[in-house]
Each structure stands twice: as structure tokens, then as C-alpha cells.
Amino acid sequence: MMRIHNQKFRPFTHVTNLVIFLGIVSFLSTSCKSNAYLTLMKPAQISVPSSIKTIAIADRTTPENEYVNIIEGVLTGEGIGMDKEAVQKAIDGLQKVMGESPRFEVIRTTESLNSDYVMGNFPDPLPWGVVSHLCAKYKTDALLMIEYFDSDFIVTNGTKVVEKKDKDGQVRKVTEYHAEGVASVNLGFRLYDPSNKSVIDQQTVSNKRSWNAKGNSVKDAIAQLYARKDAVMNVSYTTGHRYGQKISPSWFTESRSFYKKDKHYPGIEAGKRQADVGEWGKAAEIWEDVANKASGKSAGKAAFNTALAYEVLGELDIAREWASRSYTDYGNKDGRDYVRIIDRRIHEEARLREQMEE
Q: Selecting from 2.130.10.10, 3.40.50.12500, 1.20.58.100, 1.25.40.10, what CATH number does the domain 4-43+256-357 have?
């Protein structure tokens, strides 16, 4: 195994230029391990043709009969125009993810098209003449349309008997009132490719979130809940954000546990101190030296930590070798699991490279 001081590191190779480790500076200590946090880019779930470089985003959720929207707002208590605002929040989340990705240039349009949407079904696809016109207007290769939007906010309440101390320190049983508000959103997305007259993707993304509150009465508990409008806006944003992660390479945060000390080899802790200040190359050198000198559990810990250092430095093949050695040579079960993680990372980087080179 090549030692670190003889190894020329390439932390900013073609792949790792795309997978930049930004957040590997935070650590949470446990009894024997610390956590490192990695911010890295993952490939998109949905394959988009290489010809698509620019995408226009537009809204098609306006009912053909605007009175329907007004009546719905009055009957549900959502307020007139709340759905329109929520759709824009969803586009905010969508645009943030796609705007941070180097894969696409995104154009947010002011288009608001009418829809013949019927609850539970996608509207008919837009005519290709309309799609081509909008793409030409905004100089984009594709059109991402918000085809429909549904939202709901349901409030339930109940009671619970709990024990509380009064001002005199006496424990008494009192009735506590609870309320739960659940906001749910369904968004329909359709990605049009006008050059091939094809729909690249069509799917509904659903999301929900709940809020809980308690009070001295049902009314008091409900009053403490997150406001209906704010709840719907929150879930709409995260729903758009979620679809953005499906369609474009996106940033994610992952954590890794590693060993912070060993009673027989102080080099484990010395390497951790280097990692604490971002000196992962030096940490790897120290841990690798320990792994080559130690035996048994101590060597397994050092080999495992060395694997982590190489992953941070972008050398995934070498990281896999050290993780494998941690398990096969020294019986460290964490090393076996880490091999699987590195294999996944290698596969994801291959997919990411393909998507970025398209």
C-alpha cells in the first residue's frame, strides 16, 4: 500500500471538482467516535437528454374558470389567491436546487397558463406549438411546467391527562389539550422537449408535514398551531425543492463516523486533531503510519480512519482499499460497511460524470 507522503493527492480532479467537500469541519463527539460531515453533489434520478442545457419554468395551474378558484378559496378558508402564491413558493424551491446545480441554466418565467385540470388527473399535454413558442420566447431547450397544484390543511385535536406541579409544589392531574395541523401538497410536473416532441418526465410529487401544539383549551391549542397559510407555503417550497433534486445533480450532506482515540496508540487522537482543523492529508499520514505499525483492533481503527481521510481527499479507490483492509486484515466490521458506502459513492460519481459531460 502506497504511503501518503509518496502519494500525489488529486483532491480537485475532474470528478471532485463537481463533488467539492465543503462541510467537513463539524464534529460531534461520542464516547469513542466523532462525526465528520461531507457536503457533496449527487447525480439526478431522472435522465435528461444531453441536448437539454436550458429550461424554462412556467405555471399552468390557473383554472379555465377563475370563479372556481375564488369559490374554492372561500369554502376552504384558504383565502383567495393562496394557491397561486403557494405555486410560486414551490417554484422558489425548485429554482433554488436547479440554480445551484451546474447541469442546467434555469429561466423563471412569468407565464400563467389556464388548465383543464380535474382532481386526481393530469391535464392534457400542452400543444407542441405552444411548447415551441414558449421555448423560443425564453431561448431555452425545454419547458418545465407546473401542471397542477392541490393543497390541504387538516386540524385535529384531543386531550391528555398529565401530572403537573402547582405553585405550591403539589403534583396534580390536569387535562392538557392538544392540536395537530397537517399540511399536504400535491404538485404535478411535466418536462417537455420540443425538439423531439416528447415528454421527458411526468410525475406527481406529494409532501406533507405536521405541527403540534398544546394549550389550556382546544381553542388555545389550535391558536398555537402554525398558521394554515404559512404551513402550506412551507410544504409547497419543500415539494418544489424535492422535485428539483430529482431532475438535476444536487448537493446533499452525509455524515461519517470515525475513531477519535485508542489507548495503545496516541496517533489515532493526533490524527483526529489534524482532521479537526481540516488537515486531512496530515491526518491520513498519521493514521496510515499507525495502521502499518499496529495490530488487531488498533490497526483496524487506524485503517478505517485512513479510508475516511482518502474519501475526503477525493481518492475513492484508495479509500476503498483501506476500508477493505480494515475489515479483511483486522476484522473491523465498520470497515465492511464502509466498503459498501464507498462502492455507492464510486457508482454515483460515475453517473454524475456522465450527467455533467452530457
A: 1.25.40.10
